[in-house]
Structures are given as structure tokens and as C-alpha cells.
Amino acid sequence: MCDDHDAQPFSPAESTAVRKRFEHLGIPGIIDVHTHFMPGRVLDKVWAYFDSAGPMLGREWPITYRAEEEQRVETLRGFGVLAYSSMLYPHKADMARWLNSWAADFAAGHPDCLHTSTFYPEPGAAEYVRTAIDAGTRVFKSHVQVGDYSPIDPLLDDVWAAIDDAQVPVVIHCGSGPAPGSFTGPTPIETLMRRFPTLPLIVAHMGTPEYAEFLSLAERFENVRLDTTMSFTDFSEQDAPYPRDLLPRVADLGDKILFGSDFPNIPYGYTHALDAIIRLDLGDDWIRRVLHGNAARLFGIG
């Protein structure tokens, strides 16, 4: 564990501290599958919600990396992040297509960004999802909690079919943390996976707080993976501690766990997100796979 976790955000010292966490592992950098870039007016509303400690948060949540877009991009690059995503999501109908257009432009201008798209249960969703796939989307984002929709809504049947056919991974926030939604939890996802057994899902936040149930789904279905976003950090451990008796299974599942940070919306520094992974003490090889190897293989990153 390094003793430089108090380096100021956006400082050269912080970038150096982040790189110290992985340079000795022999990997070229980090692949962060869960970062947020979205249109300015949308991000402003997201930040305003965090600032208000809204009902789904229930606690103070200071945003550590509040800055203009290009400064956030350069910060990730300074950390040694080789690839990242632009996780964006609609909270209502007639929004996803526009978000996808913005994300395509963002990815075109930022080649290190995994071209990200999203969807919502609405007429025409399958059409714009196929369009996004044809345009080179590399990952989708689904936010069951914020969107307040069921992942097994019939309006998504053709969406899941198209994604399954193309084998484009979906980062899906489907756990019931930080507060349960109408359709969160493992049961709808298990139903979904029974319909589409090869659907490539990346369950965000390790499935917080239904850790054991989502771990089981990742063990049972070949293409179900987990991302570490905010998991194991002091912030998350306060309200939803990860059961230590599950860690041997987490170790065994090392090929299916990917690093995610939730940058820029995290209430602590990036070094702490990495330290939370390192202090699990699951071995350097496990850390290599989580920080780089698993995502590199999944997304074809050299």
C-alpha cells in the first residue's frame, strides 16, 4: 500500500501516485470500463443530483473530479488509463438516440474511449441499437435503477437479441444499491439470462448489495462478468460491506472481473479506488487481470 493517497486531485503528484499502483505489475496501463462522459447539460443535472444528496444517495457525495471535459480526459490519460468508457444513460423515452449520437462524436474525437451507447424500453429501440452496433459501438450502458425499467420489458426483447448476436458487452447497473429500485436485483437478470444464455453483461458495482447472487450468476453464465466500480472502498464499505467469506470465490472468478471507477463522480481519489482492489490481497496476477488483462481481452485492446 502506498502512503501517497492524499495527493491532490488533478496534480502531477496524484498521477504519479496512481501509476505507482500498477507499474510494478508489468502491465502497460489501466482499462477503466466504468467512467462517465456525457453531454454537458446532462452531466450538470447529474452533478446537481449528487450535490443535493438525493433520495437514491441518502448521504453526502462530493464529486472529486469536477472539471471541464478535456481536463477530465487528460487526467485519465495522466493516470495511465489506456481505455475508458463514456457511460451515459436515459431516464426517459426519446433520449437514448440523442445520447448515442453525442457518444459517437465523443468517441470519434477520443480514440482511447470505448465507443459507448445506451437504450431505453421504447418503440424503435432495437433499430437505434442496431444502428449503434453498425457504427462501431463497443459497449452499452443500461441503468435499470435510474431508468426505472425492467430489463425483461418486452420492448427490450429485440434489443437484447441484437446485442447478443453482436456480442457487444453491456455494463448494467442492476443491483439495488445505493437504494433499491422498482426493477433492481438479481431475479430479473436471471430471467434475462435464461432467455439469452450468451448475453454479454458486466454487472456494475459487483452487484451491490446483492453480492452473492450476482457472483453466482457470473459463475453460472459464461458471459456474465462483474465490474469493481466503487466496491471495496471505504465509502461503499460503510453501507454495503463486501462479505469477506465471498472473497475466495472472487479470487476464483479473476478472469471475469473488470476494473471500474465511476470517474469523475467518485467521492474520493482515484488512488483509493485502486488501493481498495490491492488491499484485498488476492495476488498480483489477479490484480493484473482485473486492471488490464480481462478488459483487454474482452475489447481487443493490445
From TrEMBL:
It comes from Gordonia sp. MP11Mi. Residues 31-301 form the Amidohydrolase-related domain. Keywords: Lyase. This is Amidohydrolase-related domain-containing protein. It comes from the Bacteria. The keyword Transferase does not apply. The keyword Lyase applies. GO terms for cellular component: cytoplasm. CDD domains: metallo-dependent_hydrolases.
